Amino acid sequence: MSQVSSFKPIVDERSRILILGSMPGVESLRLQEYYANPRNQFWKLIYALFELEPSKSFDERVSFVKSKGIALWDVIENCLREGSLDSAIKEEKVNNFRGLFKAYPSIETVLFNGGKAYETYKKWVGFEALTNITFLKLTSSSPANTKKYEEKLREWGGIKDFLKSGN
After folding, report:
1. Parallel, antiparallel or unpaired: strands 76-81 and 2-5
2. How far is Cα 134 from Cα 9, in angstroms, rounded to an integer?
């Protein structure tokens, strides 16, 4: 088992939606980029919401999500894990969400990219204290999740509704 650590959040004062993964996979950690595995559908899904093709540049992808009011982070700050599978995560320590929500009070919706992110947040952070934030679990964009892309896109399409409505 190897000790792995997540990245700093991609967030700014415009962020209204926070999308949380569990822990970056091996390829993302190697490249130091969120959702770097080319088989992960995250960037394809996010860009498709706005009827665009994903940029190949990670810096442009970061600028894009920020411009749309979307922040990215992971629930787990560090853990022991061999490989990329969520099922291999052991001894997880979660990120400081109290500090993040205090620093970025414009965040009004938290979307979990998969079950592990949701379950870990529920177990270690909880939902009770943050009654002003909407929480929703989405199907994982990971290649380990075999749900059809079109089904994922329909589900993830709700992101635009949150951006339009202001929650």
Report:
1. antiparallel
2. 19
Class of residue 32 by CB neighbours under 10 A (exposed 0-12, middle 13-18, buried 19+): exposed
Q: Which residues are catalytic?
A: 40
Q: Quote the CA–CA distance of 109 and 118 in Å, as a whole number.
A: 13
Q: What is the pLDDT of residues 109-146, one digit of tens each?
A: 999 999 999 999 999 999 987 778 999 999 999 988 88
pTM more than 0.70: yes
Residue 5 has a pLDDT of 97
Q: Provide the edge-to-edge strand list for the sheet that holds 90-94.
A: 2-5, 76-81, 90-94
Q: Looking at this protein, which amino acid is placed at residue 152?
A: K
